[in-house]
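Supplementary Methods S3. Complex input for the adenosine-5'-triphosphate-bound model.
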Amino acid sequence: MGKISLAMHHAKVNIANNLFVLQLAWRIHPQRVIIDFTVQACRQFSNVFFAVYFMKYIIESISVERDFQQIVYFILITLAILLVLSMLDHWYVQRFKPISDLTIYEKLYLILFRKASTVELKCFEDHEFYNKYTKAIQEADRRTSAVLDSISRIIFSSLATISIFSVMYAIDPWVVLFALLPIVGNFYFGKKLNRLQFKQNEESVPHQRKMDYVNRVIYLSNYAKEIRLSRIFSVLRSTYQEGYDGVISTIHKYRVRAGVISFFKIFLTFTLIFQGVLLYGAYLAIVKESISISSFVVLGTAMVSGAWSLIRMSDSVVEINKNGIFIDNLKSFLHYESEIPEHAEPNLISPPRLQQLALRQLQFTYDGAESATLSDITIELNKNEKIALVGHNGAGKSTLIKLMMRLYDPTEGEITLNGRNIKELDLMSYRAMFGTVFQDFRIFSMTIAENVLMRELESDVDRQLVIEALKKSRVYDKVAALPHGIDTMLTKEFDDEGVVLSGGEFQKIAIARIFAQPAEILILDEPTSALDPIAEYEIFESMLEACEDKAVVIISHRMSSAMLADRIYYLEDGSIQEAGTHTELMQRQGKYAELFLKQAEKYVDQEELVEVANRHEA
Ligand SMILES: Nc1ncnc2c1ncn2[C@@H]1O[C@H](COP(=O)(O)OP(=O)(O)OP(=O)(O)O)[C@@H](O)[C@H]1O
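Predicted complex, serialized as structure tokens:
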């Protein structure tokens, strides 16, 4: 593509990007768009009127000796208009704009958060995507306001410029040409400066993210203990320093170039416009005597006002260009099409009630990984069946669960629900079939009830549901003893009366989530690590009792819990090594039996674990 057609292409893309945000702003807050344009029109009108036509009228009045009373009326009327326009401007800047900006940001952030919560999990592991997301979030608010300002400014400054220049043209046509030339320079250098700033910004984002990460970690309470009790702070400090050095070095890298370009931009714009044209006007009036002194005065004021209009116009063009480049990130984030579509699609059907979930010869490799994490996995989970996945760390158990819930798609093989590939099913409804607690579950700074329901508490039926769920996860006695019961805030983030529970109690709250959901398949991905063996056994037991009519998948490193399942799958290096009931696997004397016996040896020293085994026997 030639240079000119490339520039045309860029210009087209940038205009399209700005219009995209203008449409977005219109959808979010149409009044803001209308008022923004109206205020801009009024500003430009008063600039042109007072700088040119007002001045022209007064000077002409003197030369044609107009009636003094008429001049006074004219001035009073224009003052009244000026007063109304300044009041409107004041209201817009002080009252309307700040509030409407916040309204736009709030809605825009909601759109971004919604998108972020639906893109595939793998996007958050993709460095490039994450950078785009960070930039879209950082820039979103500023850019919307900037787009509105620059579009309205460019429209009305153009009108203002045309009307001022027509007055100047009538005085001397060459003056207009003279005033136009430096604008080309301003535009040219402004564009160059933008590209440079964009590049600098692009390069500093990864460094900025390092600094943001440290800021976040230091600030969050769940890192506070480790930071105080270890020397990790020095590593965090180095990470922050690396980020800081990176940002500074990108600034240094572009500093000289940006300085030189800025100098030319200012020199050509201001010096040439303001001094040059006035000099030319003086030459016309004094040396050539081709214009009158009153024309020179009008030319002077029109020049100042016209030049500013032109500068505003060319700055707006540059700003539109700058917006366009940044909006690319926002657009590509918002338009990102998930390979796993979250939204309902007409060709996707609602999942039928579970009869059998079958994983057939699955193979899965994480993006960027050299070898497969899972290979040749075949598992069947029937209605009402309880299965357990066991194996050493890194065997692939959690990955298997993520595939089952379609957080990732398998690289090979298929997952079927009652014989139908799950890709043909509506994803949201499919995921709603699962009640899951992961090992890295999160407790939110919200009430206990909201943490259990994972939504707002809406009715007394909900209250009862929460209480029953907490009873099943064996933590209700503790919750009932708190002054606000299930309405107690968890953590002290927003509320001094918020409670901080023990690790095991937090886990029980998280586990209560699966009892409060109308799910058909329950998955416990080892959320019981902070529980003592008896508590874990009791919870699993209670779950199996409460969920007789549901399918259950348990992942646990404690074999005493796994043995409660109807079928156990032993995984190693991403593939199933052994499968069967506890008794079958023990008789086989393979790896499962070895692992079980190793744990049993440790358990013998602790009487409580003997109790677990006894209970199972019973
Ligand atoms: N998001 C990811 N990107 C790349 N590799 C990953 C990712 N998550 C897990 N892995 C890798 O996949 C392998 C299996 O991890 P997985 O978490 O499934 O094991 P696990 O059996 O659940 O382990 P544990 O018992 O320790 O929880 C590990 O080697 C891990 O490094």
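The chain has a mean pLDDT of 83. The chain has two domains: 10-334, 385-410+422-617.
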